[in-house]
Amino acid sequence: MSAPLLELRRITKSYAGVHALRGVDFDLQPGEVHALLGENGAGKSTLIRVVTGAHQPDRGSIAIAGQRVTHLTPSAAQQLGVACIYQQPALFPDLTVAENIALRLEPSTGLRLVHWSARRERARSLLARIGASISPETEVRALSMPEQQLVEIACALGAGARIVIMDEPTASLTQKEQHLLFAVVRDLRASGVGVIYISHRLDEIFALADRVTVLRDGESVGTSPVGEINEAGLIRMMVGREVTQIYPPAETEPGDTVLSLKGVGSSACPVHDVTFDVRAGEVFGLAGLVGAGRTELARILFGLTPADRGEIRLNGQPVTLRSPQEAVAHGIAYVPEDRRRHGVVLEMPIAQNMSMAVHRRIFPGTWLRFGTERRHALDFIRDLAVKAYGPDAPGGSLSGGNQQKVSLARWLATKPKLLILDEPTQGVDVGAKSEIHKIVRRLAKQGLAVLLISSDLPEVLGMSDRIGIMRGGTMAAVLPGKADAQEVMALALGTAK
Amino acid sequence: MNRYFRELSVAGALGLLLAMLAVVAPAFYQPQPLLSLATREAPTLVVACGMALVIICRQIDISVGSQFSVCSVGAGLLAAHGWPAGLVLLASVSIGALLGAFNGVLVAGLRLPSIVVTLATLVSLRQGLNLVRQGEFVNLPDGLQWFGLSQTDGQWTLVAFALGLLLVFAVALRYLSAGRFVYAVGTDTEAARLAGINPQRVTFAVFVLMGALTGLAAMMNIIQSPQVQPLSGNGLELKVIAAVVVGGVAISGGRGSVWGMFAGLLLLACVSPTLTHLHIEAYWEKAIQGAIILLAVVADGLRSRKENR
Predict the structure, then answer these.
(1) What is the CATH number of domain B2-308?
(2) In the structure, what pLDDT confidence band is assigned to residue B16 with cuts at 50, 70 and 90?
């Protein structure tokens, strides 16, 4: 038996206190397609970054083609035959296909005469090998996403890659293009190349892969030949976990409907035909995989993207939301996902961050009043238990969890009726997470309608009174809060009957 | 105090320079030459206030020199046609505001990069002016110089006015919502939008203000001499941007203050008279100014690298 192409043993990696990978074992045999499965945040991306040398594991060993490798760098990984094709192809749009392939494959030596015809020929032959009908002279900008992916695969072939990693390759492909891609993958397998195939589409995994490994919360739950497991079994591996976190329970019955959507969609984004409602005092969880359209829906509700189809009603009245100002005027608040870029201005003191959205209300007249602003901030700092040395502390000096609280305070100051939270506890430590959950429950009890977007399945299940699962830009189903994790995942994946 | 370190270090450098001059060349501190220097630099200070705002807003306006020339010539011609001084002033500010609005529409409305837009207006305004005037000077009526005051009174008025305007801007940036919004938009346009601010409106307003201030400065300049030189605005943008950058306003936006700009402007302005009083050849002026600017930019670069790690 030949040595495995890739062997990872006990790989452990942490970022900023979060354990992304915990002692993961993984191996790839020559001539196999090994699928990697796991929900958002399970550790797939981190594992791939370790294999491509982008990040060094804190602990664990990597062996490529039987040789131990210490301190793998991206260029070393490329030399050893590792190639990764990402969802977003990293090609240069202003250059031609031939130029891109040459850039990737030719060693950079500075002063060398360029043999254009040789480059063209090489590009042509590589593209022909994978059956892609793309002219090497085309500018990459003019290629569609799937065509760009094929160029990336051609580069990988040209580089003599033995380990090809594909990250959600069929996400934006038509049926026909998928078949082409599958044929390419099968060809690669036949020539002895090992493919690590990351995908959420269970049907693809069953059609293409030889083995599948499931990651969950940074650990490898298990590896199985594809023939020995079924969909239900895979889903069970993805979501089955010990419930260790206690979530604050709902204490009040929900009241009147605050937000009601019927057939809402926008031509500017993938969201279409969304129908659901949120009531006062209720936490409505919005679950789904990355790319399902949850943040896009939030942006529609906050007036950042226009909804040109369907009807949105607030407290029974139809509304058009053309800008964030209008949304705020209607009582909608949106706490953005990217806390460091959009949620908090890192340079500004906390007090200024917190008052940012409510100048007109708390500062009567023309002038800002620092005293008022300070008191306003101190109230929120106390209410939300923000840990900082004072209201003058710059936003950037706070931990993630406390920054999130500042971002939340900014919007609570607008006294909203509907609060949209986009991944509020992402990258937040356990203690602050729990505090934020308690705050959310308290706000709901005070009568706020809360739309909670989260990729953390236990959080969605634990916090929500009802759960809406989005998939492919629309609402796949709405379930009561005490839903089954596997059912939610199945709906998110699209495998439920 | 870490927050104001950058501004304080410029002020410190200025203080050191002034202290050194007091010891080595006390002749520097004669009132009349200093007043003349201050008066010559007063229009620059006014334009620099506007430029500080533009750069804090993460934009740039390199057309101010050409705007200045156009406003100077325009105001001069109106004065020569007998318009009263007050109306001429209003006209100069309005012309400037209009030119600024043109930049503003292209940058804020069409979302074009400000460097490209203001480069285009720089060139077209300057060439347009050349075509129309052929480099001719404009002779101003007698009553216009110093607004009819004596030279010394006129000088004090201009300097006091420029300092007053600086104070107004310092207060506005700190104590008005609009000031906060300029900082927010300069940090991240999308973040500002998400916070309920209208970044397009803020950006447009900043460019209009820049133009208006340039028109104001042009007026302050033409009353200092009996003729208007159409080339008077050349190089203004470099002077002003240098002062702003040395003063600690980050080119990447969202950071800095007009006080810092003031210290930077003074520092750069003092280089030339310092050389004179130390009997060093004048051609070192540009080199030393360049070195100061380079030092400032490198210091800022190192600082942001340290922060981003």
Answers:
(1) 1.10.3470
(2) very high
List chain B domain ranges: 2-308
Domain A257-493 has CATH 3.40.50.300: yes
Contact B196 A328 (CB under 8 A): yes
Spans of all domains in chain A: 6-239, 257-493
Distances (CA, A) of A221 to A25, A29, A218, B122: 10, 19, 9, 64
Enter the CATH code of domain A6-239: 3.40.50.300
- Map chain B to HEC letters: CHHHHHHHHHHHHHHHHHHHHHHHCHHHHCHHHHHHHHHHHHHHHHHHHHHHHHHHCCCCCCCHHHHHHHHHHHHHHHHHCCCCHHHHHHHHHHHHHHHHHHHHHHHHHCCCCHHHHHHHHHHHHHHHHHHHHCCCCEECCHHHHHHHCCHHHHHHHHHHHHHHHHHHHHHHHHHEHHHHHHHHHHHCHHHHHHCCCCHHHHHHHHHHHHHHHHHHHHHHHHCCCCEECCCCCCCHHHHHHHHHHHCCCCCCCCCCCHHHHHHHHHHHHHHHHHHHHCCCCCCHHHHHHHHHHHHHHHHHHHHHHHHHC
Chain A residues with a Cβ under 8 Å from any Cβ in chain B: 302, 304, 323-325, 328, 334, 336, 341-343, 345, 347-348, 352, 356-357, 359-360, 363, 366-368, 394, 410
Instruction: Identify whether the C-beta of residue A418 lies closer than 8 Å to the C-beta of residue A333.
Output: yes
Q: How crowded is residue A196: how many other Cβ atoms within 10 Å of its Cβ?
A: 26
Contacts of A328 in chain B (CB under 8 A): 196
Chain-wide mean pLDDT for chain B?
Answer: 91
Q: Rounded to two decimals, what is the model's pTM?
A: 0.83
ipTM: 0.84
Residue range A38-56, pLDDT digits in tens: 887 788 888 999 999 998 9
Q: Is the pLDDT of residue A415 over 90?
A: yes
DSSP A193-218: -EEEEE-S-HHHHHHH-SEEEEEETT
Q: What per-residue confidence (pLDDT) applies to B1?
A: 47
Choose, out of B2, B56, B194, the residue to mutate when testing the contact with A (most A CBs < 10 Å).
Answer: B194
User: Mutate which of A299, A300, A359, A362 to disrupt the B interface (most B C-beta within 10 Å)?
Assistant: A359
Q: What is the pLDDT of residues A234-284, one digit of tens each?
A: 888 888 776 667 788 887 888 899 999 999 999 888 899 999 999 999 999
